[in-house]
Amino acid sequence: MASVRARSRYRPRRVRLRDGREVTLREIEEGDASEIVAAFERLSAESRYSRFMQHKKQLDAGALERGVHPRPGLDYVLVATIPALDGIDIVGAVQYVRAQAGDDRVCEFAVTIAEDWRGNGLATALMSRLLRRARRDGYETIEGWVLASNTPMLALARELRFSADPVPDEADVVRVRRELQDGPRRSRTR
Ligand SMILES: CC(C)(COP(=O)(O)OP(=O)(O)OC[C@H]1O[C@@H](n2cnc3c(N)ncnc32)[C@H](O)[C@@H]1OP(=O)(O)O)[C@@H](O)C(=O)NCCC(=O)NCCS
Fold this sequence. Notes:
Strands 1-2-3-4-5-6-8-7 form an eight-stranded mixed beta sheet, with helices on both faces. It contains five helices and eight strands. It is an alpha+beta fold and 190 residues long. The longest helix is centred in the C-terminal third of the chain and has 15 residues, at 122-136. The N and C termini lie far apart (32 Å).
């Protein structure tokens, strides 16, 4: 069962990506809601479909509200930010939530990187930290659902030692899953 012990906060830190650009990784804050919406609006229709497995024109209010108020010890959201004229832009986000299927040892993840920031190890950096936190929160397994055509996500999952299995009656979806007892293999950023 996911533990209910008090959680330590993730200390914000700067990370240099492979192309030399820097981002700040930190936990999500309530005030990030408008930047999450802006980041969603900057995504292409294809990226939105890859992430949500449906054609989404806007984020639903409930999901946004839950996203900026993760339940301590159960849900977790990390964002990657860069400075912007109006404050910050969010260029990457990764989250887990307790699995809806009722098994409290399992959490479900999702990850999105802004198109201009891909191919630099940012998803790997965020996912590595997410896996560590999920383990510390007491989860035994992390899983996610990915379009079978989503080559980048499936390759990333393979790199992070997730297994990939077909989903019965859903030929276009793959379930990726990883036990959390051992550590993520690597993080490509300092
Ligand atoms: C999938 C996604 C998160 C990857 O983000 P990223 O920051 O580019 O990933 P990384 O740079 O950390 O790449 C890690 C590994 O993933 C694989 N990968 C990433 N992009 C790839 C691509 N376009 N083609 C093939 N493999 C790719 C590679 O194995 C890569 O390792 P390498 O750099 O040593 O080759 C990003 O493409 C994205 O946000 N897609 C849209 C949203 C989505 O599909 N989310 C998944 C559903 S939960």
